[in-house]
Amino acid sequence: MGRQTHDRMANAIRALAMDAVEAAKSGHPGMPMGMADVATVLFTRFLKFDPADPAWPDRDRFVLSAGHGSMLLYAVLHLLGYADMTLEELKRFRQIGSKTAGHPEYGHAAGIETTTGPLGQGLANAVGMALAERIMAAKFGDGIVDHYAYVLASDGDLMEGISQEAIAFAGHLKLSKLIVLFDDNGISIDGKLSLSDSTDQVARVKASGWNGVRVDGHDPEAIAAAIEAAQKSDRPTLIACKTTIGFGAPTKAGTEHAHGSPLGAEEIKGAREKLGWNYAPFEIPADIREDWEKAGARSKDARKAWASRLAALDAPVRAEFERRMAGMLPPALATAVRKIKEGAAEKQVEIATRKASEASLEALVEALPEMIGGSADLTGSNNTKTKGMKIIAPGDFSGRFVHWGVREHGMAAGMNGMALHGGVIPYSGTFLIFSDYCRPSIRLAALMDQRVIHVMTHDSIGLGEDGPTHQPVEHLAALRAIPNLHVFRPADLTETAECWQLAIEHAKGPSVLALTRQNLPAVRKRFVEENLSARGAYELSPASGKAKVSIFASGSEISLAVAAQAELEKKGVPARIVSVPCFELFFAQPASYRHAVIGDAPRVAVEAAIRQGWDAIIGTDGAFVGMTGFGASAPYKDIYKHFGITTEAVVEAALGALGNERSGGVKAAARS
Ligand SMILES: Cc1ncc(C[n+]2csc(CCOP(=O)(O)OP(=O)(O)O)c2C)c(N)n1
């Protein structure tokens, strides 16, 4: 391609970005204008994709980590001929119901590989994509799985802490098909980057085992040469592209004023003159449109060749590849869960739920080859690695277990990238307390409807001596606050197996399994085929007669409820127990079921955590036995006693609730 054609193609991106931001009266024109040359080179010469089949499994992934520059992606997708991305959509940039949201949102339009905007996330997602690609290639061969993950990252992406976790991890695993195009424009919102940063990013990535090179981000041949070299490398590459933010804008280029607001009519007029772009807003001349559409058709033959290779596979292998990419579950899942539950009913073992999870995983990992486990350096504590599980190592991706290192945030974002890539179901572990370190990524998994499973052990003061820095108190409530996240807190082996099944079946969202460090008695006494946890809450143990009180609990506190029920019986107070392994599933039940489970007796809840959220079940007048502040360091039984989370306390609360009802308080609450 001649320089003139390149310039005109890049200017089409610039013009669409300026015009759409101007029409929306909001948005970020600077990055798309600055990176238009890089994007033009990447999409017209390197990226493997087919707008006619956007979900082609062997396409290269392109991640716009600097999500504020969304117009770059929308403009390119439009120009390449993606059916979703019409000119009309560009004109409706940032409007309600459009595919062109403020920041790219996964699922809104084909070609948006992940939701970006929170800086650093896209880069870490891409690491997960590059990892999933290698795992799938190890399983199905390079003829079927052989693609790159390209990332467009900004200064902000590289300043965020998560980038260090992602870079160090990718360097360690030598994820050589990860190529980062860094928009090295020296500008962020506050002004020159020198206000707050002086990192040599090339030296930085090299220190983590990457290639790092610098190019003039407005020189197409230099960019192309760097990408070519990166493709051949045995390690990930960062190409620092020196660019001018807002390239072409007469007074705002090179300044923070081009970053995040419309350029204004005068400036746009000047930019059109400077760029030699003599067309009306949103007008793309036919020759440029044709050139872009040609670029869009570049990989057609490659896709056809790939389809032939897929068709030539043995039928069972092809079916397995297609099943995994479609995220369909094998029938072996139900069989595995049934087996665990039968064993649990028979043996009635007293074990920690983290051990129950490990026992479940032994069967599940066997039944579901797509499950890829891991831990953020707490493998022995999270119990996420089953006996036969081989480790994924640099150069050998045939294993099933990822040592993520002490990188919870990078891990959670990487898992999102793995799920988005497809073919794998990532699960991994850390302590529940460090869900705070994963939270931004868990939120994005929920927003993107991605099946990612977090095993979070040491789920309360019950972890004991490590003390309040390690004892989650508000975390269950905080996680339950995230829409579309299922938070499971099973009580014994049977419930753990059921919750695992539900997490795996939650195909359109993430799950957290909150599990204990301490041993718990079995509370499910007999085998029931039905997954009782599936409705979120169910009557675990009925009262001997008409219930005078209902006790609600989750996880480790179920055993307290069981003991309290026996005490209350002795006192002539029939009590029923409701196990609540998952709030979200319970609240999704029809009102009739919810009302039946909640019942009309006075209510008490017990959970070794804060009360927030429980009022939806027990009402504001319900009694709650739990935590009101931070925990303490001591043997766990002493801590439970110290904070008054005991059988006696539950009994007392139940009797108090009864007395309260006699005086009319609870009835009033039940009506409200
Ligand atoms: C985690 C996070 N913090 C803050 C922001 C708000 N924000 C958007 S862009 C940006 C920085 C802009 O600088 P840079 O990344 O260099 O982008 P450029 O100005 O070059 O387009 C910030 C702070 C964000 N999107 N994500």
Structure description:
This protein is an alpha/beta fold and 672 residues long. The strands form four sheets. Strands 9-8-10-11-13-12 form a six-stranded parallel sheet, with helices on both faces. Helix 20 (493-505) links the parallel strand 12 and strand 13 (511-514). The longest helix has 22 residues, at 3-24. The protein is elongated and about 90 Å long. It starts with a helix and ends with a helix. Thiamine diphosphate is lined by residues 30-31, 66, 68-69, 117-119, 154-156, 160, 183, 185, 187-189, 245, 259.
In short, what is this structure?
With 672 residues, the chain is of the alpha/beta class.
Name the average pLDDT: 97
Bin the strand percentage.
5-15%
Stretches where pLDDT falls below 50 for ≥5 residues?
A: 665-672
Helix content: 40-55%
Distance between the amino and carboxyl termini: 71 Å
* Biggest beta sheet attributes: 6 strands, parallel
Query: Could you tell me which ligands this complex binds, including any ions or cofactors?
Result: thiamine diphosphate
Rg from Cα:
28 Å
The total beta strand count reads 18
H/I helix tally? 27
Q: How are the strands ordered across the major sheet?
A: 9-8-10-11-13-12
Quaternary structure type: single chain
Shape: elongated
| Overall SS class | alpha/beta
